[in-house]
Amino acid sequence: xxxxxxxxxxxxxxxxxxxxxxxxxxxxxxxxxxxxxxxxxxxxxxxxxxxxxxxxxxxxxxxxxxxxxxxxxxxxxxxxxxxxxxxxxxxxxxx
Length: 95
What we know:
Helix 2 runs antiparallel to helix 3. This protein has a domain of 66 residues. The protein is mainly alpha-helical.
């Protein structure tokens, strides 16, 4: 679990309690990850449509899609409770 979850706390007991609370919400976080998969798949489908390139501002749309994917990646990183187990999705590039 990354420290962003509990950095607002200073008492070790509160930190431990909060960590357990977050971990107990694992099913919710797994569902959120599935929703993120759907959101990313939607972007991929839109991007593969050849008519996207018929628009004069297609490069701005591409940049927006890249930013959207980056946000999804950050959210996935946040909701991955065991940071050392975090594995990037096969389709994404790591920098």
